[in-house]
Amino acid sequence: MDHEAPIVHDVLGIPWLDFNLSTILMTFIASAIVFIICTVGARKLQMKPTGFQNFMEWIIDFVKGIIGDTMDWKTGKTFLPLGLTLLVFIFVSNILGVITMVVFGHDLWWKSPTSDAVLTLTLSSLVIVLSHYYGVKEKGFKEYAKDYVRPVPFLLPFKIIEEFTNTLTLGLRLFGNIFAGEILLSLITKMAMIAFPLTTVVSIVPMVAWQGFSLFIGAIQAFIFTMLTMVYMSHKVSSDH
User: Fold this and answer.
1) Fewer beta carbons below 10 Å: N end or C end of the chain?
2) Domain positions in the chain
């Protein structure tokens, strides 16, 4: 994309500390949308759910299914709020840049926050840190540490490397898919402006088709991130892998 994200450089006088204002703004917007969705879904709860409450309960059951596929429910119920939050937040974040893009003063302000590797790697890092925390909490530090030398101590360096690769792959997979989608949408938009209005009419079909496909990809990536989060949690808190 020709348009660059608005970035504040050298924050607090630190040369390497930069803030992407667009990512920060869109993260707050995505969080606000998720908060509104959950608040509306939890209002006026009924024994026989209808409308939006029914939709929210379906999402909760869906996350329960993800957890149930990776660990027993007695252990996994602790992670229901985490899984629900990740699934909804990542999906909303993924589709924000699919709906539209807003450029102001040659700076790209409205986009998917998950098209920024910093955000996705931060999410994946938090997931890995949480998996270690709950692993120690559930098993105790001594028993948890023994998992790194099972079944043979020779595997210790490989298991340490695995923690870093899990963080990178979890974050970069999400970033790559969403960023690539936004790049292609930007290229289709440019094509539409080459010889207005002829190219605009021609570009409508691929634009709509790619937006629909991007919605599907956004949902799949939210599911994959949530599923892998529960898999990593299961590896740390469960005795049987």
Assistant:
1) C
2) 7-237
